Structure formats: structure tokens, C-alpha cells
From TrEMBL:
Family: Belongs to the leucine-binding protein family.
Pfam families associated with the record: Peripla_BP_6
InterPro entries named in the record: ABC_transptr_sub-bd_PQQ (IPR022478), BCAA_transport (IPR051010), Leu-bd (IPR028081), Peripla_BP_I (IPR028082)
Domain Leucine-binding protein: 100-365
Organism this protein belongs to: Methylobacterium phyllostachyos
Record's protein name: ABC transporter, substrate binding protein, PQQ-dependent alcohol dehydrogenase system
Length: 407
């Protein structure tokens, strides 16, 4: 019997356990599915469409289907796995336009037991607080707000996308490793920019770096592409620093900071060397398989929210396989169990934190065309798992919605 290279990793990017390999060998050569073990498990996808600024420098805009195509691939993968033990899944999508009531859209969903939510934080909370959502499992793939994992956490809410705190911790760990500990911070005017900047301040304090100077920049009223050389001389001038960190989540000016800073320093943050859940250069741990399947499906590269959408549906599918059932209560119990682990093409098992519902996961530090490093960075230790050095650890979080869960 000859095994191909695909034996080394499964669809989730992890080496299969011996029992799983044996199970695979027992599948008939015809690939016939097992007899159905129950009705299909319906997964809902609910998205708030966001109006975004026109990108600079002819960069590709954020695709309108970011997140949705990832969830679609997650469905295909889950059905491919589940059919061998008689499990099947369906996906129903609902897009809410700007200005429309997302709570009404949620109420219109049929049997919303598992809902992948791609929406800003206020929408996520509005849904989570609905009486109709008490028996739902909501999987957040679009809101990085740390407060959703902290004071505004909810028991029915899990987070697949990394928080801003996790992204900032990943970046500052790398800076600490390089001994680039003096940071000049430039933030844009948007609320998300302020939150990103605050996450960087917190991470700098946590890992022994320093914000030596701060400035703000508002790109409105001009075309920074024509004026960058002189526009950024003042905002990037300050105390001696090792890097310039930028907080510009919408991409309105950050890319133009490259090579236009007052001193010749690396650019990090939302542009330059950027922490992210996923990106086009990610190939290790069999990620190239996932990248190829996604590109075939969507006709473009997989983005962070796409990965989160895939991961959310994939996690539900894996929980169903562990429960060997599509009964919503059985799947929910498996998904939220302390010992639940799932592969995500990130080199190690991923799991949900017991105290705030956040998915533990490595974070990539990306430069266009390459993965520079993967956090947690070697040397940053934790008594439970090094993954918990990223984001709010249990003593740091004021979330109490999950009290009573262990893990």
C-alpha cells in the first residue's frame, strides 16, 4: 500500500491520530458515505455590509464576499469529512445592508442555533443580547474589539477572529525579540485606530517596550499620495525610536508612510510588518492546501476574515464529528467542552478559552510576500500554553459570563 504526501496532514493541518488513520483505512475504497445519522445541521451566516473608503495606490479593495466565501469553504470541508459517518451540514446566508436592523434579520433566521456573525462590535452585542439568541452559539468572525472578550463578553458568544490585544501582543513580542523596544506611534482619526493604538500601548507595557512619542494624522482634505514626502516629516519626528508603528485600520494613509518617515525606521502595525490571523504568504503546516482550495472556490487569495469564516464553520463541523451527531445540543456541548481542540492550519491544536470564549491561535507577522515570524515568539512562556501570552489572559480579563467553565 502506498501513501501519498497527503497522509502527513489532514484537512485541518494536523497529523492525524492513529485511531483516525485506522478509521480512514476502514472507509470503503468507493468512498461511499455512511448512512445518515440525522438531519443536516443548519449553520447560519449573518453579515453587516460595511461601507469602506476607496483604497490608496490602486490596492485591491476588501472583497464584498470576505468572510462569506470562507464559510462556504468551511461547509464544503465539513460535508466532505462528515459524510463518512453520516453527518451533513447546510449553510444559510443573510446580508444586512448599512442602516438596516440586524436584530430583525436575526429574528428572521430559521432555527438560529449556530450563527457565524460578520459584523461590527455593536451589532454583535445587539444580537447576543436578544432573548431569541439565548440558545444560540454565535461565532464572531468580524469584530476584533478586545472589549467583547472583556467587560462586554457574553456566554453565547465565541470569538474566532483574534482580538486587537492578540494582534498587538504578537507584534510587540517580535519587537522585543529584535530589541526594537522604542516605538513612535502614529494613529489615524477613526475609532478603530484609537482602539488599535490603545492595544499597542497595553502590549508595550506588558512586554517591556516603550511608546516614546505619539502623533496623529488625519488624511482628510488632501491626497496623501501626492504630499507624503512632506506630510509625514512632522508626525514621524520625535524622540529616538527603533520603529514607527501605525494605527490605520481602514488603510487611508498607512501604506504611504513607507520610506516617508523622518528617520529611516521600519514600519509596523496596520501597515508594514502587520500581525494577522491569515494572509496570502501563509504556506507552512499544509496551509498551502487550504490556500489552494480557497483560491479555486473564490478566485482570489484568502484574507483574515475568510479564514475566520472557514474556521467557524469547520469548528462546528469538527464538534459534530466528535459528538457523532447533528443534534444542536450535542454539538454545542462538544464545541464548548474544555477538551475541545480543532486544527486550523496553524501548526498546533486550537481551542476556545474558558474565561472569554476567544479561540487560542498563533498570529502571523506578515510582510507582503512573506511570513516574517509567527507568534507566540519562542521564549515567551506561560504555565498553561504559550498561546495564552497573546491577548487577555485569565487574570487580566474582567469577563465573568463564562464563570464555572474550566480549561
Amino acid at each position: 500500500m502506498v501513501f501519498s504526501g497527503a497522509w502527513r496532514t489532514n484537512r485541518a493541518g494536523l497529523r492525524p491520530r492513529a485511531g483516525l488513520v485506522l478509521a480512514a483505512l476502514l472507509v470503503p475504497a468507493s468512498g461511499c458515505a455512511a448512512e445518515a445519522a440525522g438531519p443536516p445541521l443548519t449553520i447560519q451566516y449573518l453579515e453587516r455590509r460595511i461601507e469602506r473608503p476607496v483604497p490608496l495606490n490602486n490596492e485591491d479593495p476588501i472583497p464584498d464576499d470576505e468572510g462569506a466565501r470562507g464559510a462556504e469553504l468551511g461547509l464544503k470541508d465539513s460535508n466532505a469529512t462528515g459524510r463518512f459517518i453520516g453527518l451533513s451540514f447546510s449553510l444559510e446566508s443573510r446580508i444586512v445592508q448599512p442602516g438596516d436592523d440586524i436584530r430583525a434579520a436575526f429574528r428572521d433566521l430559521a432555527n438560529p442555533r449556530f450563527v457565524v456573525v460578520n459584523a461590527p462590535a455593536e451589532d454583535v452585542l445587539a444580537i447576543a443580547d436578544l432573548p431569541e439568541a439565548r440558545s444560540s452559539v454565535l461565532l464572531n468572525i468580524g469584530a476584533p474589539d478586545t472589549r467583547l472578550r472583556d467587560a462586554d463578553c457574553r456566554k453565547n458568544l465565541l470569538h474566532v477572529l483574534p482580538s486587537r490585544a492578540m494582534l498587538a501582543d504578537a507584534l510587540v513580542q517580535f519587537l522585543a525579540l529584535k530589541r526594537w523596544s522604542r516605538i513612535l506611534l502614529v494613529a489615524g482619526p477613526a475609532p478603530g485606530d484609537a482602539l488599535y493604538a490603545e492595544a499597542l500601548r497595553r502590549s508595550a507595557k506588558k512586554f517591556g517596550a516603550r511608546i516614546v512619542a505619539e502623533s496623529s494624522y488625519d488624511p482628510k482634505g488632501g491626497d496623501v499620495r501626492d504630499t507624503a514626502l512632506r506630510e509625514f516629516a512632522l508626525p514621524t519626528r520625535g524622540a529616538e525610536h527603533d520603529v514607527v508603528a501605525v494605527a490605520d485600520e481602514a488603510g487611508e494613509f498607512g501604506a504611504s508612510l513607507n520610506y516617508n518617515t523622518a528617520s529611516p525606521r521600519p514600519l509596523v502595525g496596520t501597515q508594514g510588518l502587520s500581525p494577522a490571523a491569515w494572509g496570502r504568504p501563509v504556506e507552512a503546516w499544509a496551509a498551502v492546501q487550504l490556500q489552494g482550495r480557497f483560491r479555486k472556490l473564490a478566485g482570489r487569495a484568502m484574507r483574515p476574515v475568510d479564514w475566520a469564516g472557514w474556521m467557524a464553520v469547520h469548528a462546528i463541523g469538527e464538534a459534530s464529528v466528535k459528538a457523532r451527531s447533528t443534534d444542536p445540543e450535542a454539538v454545542r456541548a462538544a464545541l464548548t467542552a474544555p477538551n475541545f481542540e480543532v486544527g486550523g492550519f496553524k501548526g498546533r491544536p486550537l481551542s476556545f478559552r474558558a474565561w472569554d470564549g476567544q479561540l487560542r491561535q498563533p498570529v502571523f507577522l506578515l510582510w507582503p510576500g512573506a511570513v516574517t515570524a509567527t507568534a507566540p515568539i519562542e521564549g515567551f512562556l506561560h504555565h498553561r500554553t504559550e498561546l495564552d501570552t497573546l491577548g487577555l489572559d485569565e487574570p487580566e480579563s474582567v469577563c465573568r459570563a463564562f464563570t464555572g467553565r474550566a480549561g
